[in-house]
Amino acid sequence: MVLATDGMAVGQAVGPLLAGAKYSVSVIVPGALERAKPMLALMGRFAAAAKSGVTVRLLCTPQVLAVPHGILAAVRGGQLGFEVRITDADLHGTVIVDGKAAFGRSGPERDGRYATVNTDLASVRALYLMFAGAWGSAMPVHEHLRLADRLRSDSMRVILERLREGHTDDVAAKKIQISLRTYRRHVAAIMRDVGASSRFQAGVRAVELGLLSHSGSELVD
Asked: Contact, 164 vs 207, CB < 8 A?
């Protein structure tokens, strides 16, 4: 058992698993940045596994994606070599290798402070099914970045703010001084892009996807 924030200990625990990987490595980087750092430090090892022919898939939150000199830099530099998807789910850090061994949260404690290697096949299978479910509903990183670029314009930023604040279409259109028809056209496009079923949900989704900050009106870079 190791402290999940201890980068050296995490590396020593996960390293042998990655070295023995033959088919697949499935990674969840935790959303809490303090616990994400040890996982991010393993990016080179994940890339090495991918280069050796192992299928590597990595899930992370928008906040973790934006960590300087991390995943985003590798994606934009074309240096990653494996698939990344973005999720807003609050998941614990996990590394699953070949469906036979996993590194992740230890015991029933919910805060994920400690992690350990698990080779119990039933437990590993349960972790893999959890990963597969989250992976299936997550957004590919390039799609996430394209969406962020589309919604980063000044007009889209203002509309997203109105949506998050819960204004009616009529009030919002008047506030930003555009026609109601134009406003509704923009809203329909935003809802489609972020997969929202309501106007307020579109604003919330923008925050969840890291496209809009929690406290201010600025879109996240």
From this structure: yes
DSSP code of 213? -
Contacts (Cβ under 8 Å, ≥6 apart) of 144: 62, 65, 86, 209
> Do residues 163 and 190 make contact, with C-beta atoms less than 8 angstroms apart?
yes
| Environment class of 149 (CB within 10 Å of its CB; exposed 0-12, middle 13-18, buried 19+) | exposed
The model scores a pTM over 0.85: no
Dump pLDDT digits (tens) for 68-127.
778 887 887 777 889 999 887 778 899 999 999 999 887 655 556 888 999 999 999 999
Tokens (6 digits) for 190: 């935003």
Asked if 38 and 10 touch (Cβ cutoff 8 Å), the reply is: yes
Task: Give how far the C-alpha of residue 8 lies from the chain's centroid of Cα atoms, to the nearest Å.
Answer: 24
Q: How far apart are the first and last CA of the chain?
A: 36
3-state DSSP assignment of residue 62: helix
* Sheet-wide strand order for 24-28: 2-3, 114-118, 101-105, 94-97, 24-28, 55-60, 83-86, 139-140
Taken in order of first residue, the domains within the chain and their CATH numbers are: 2-140 (3.30.870.10), 151-208 (1.10.10.10)
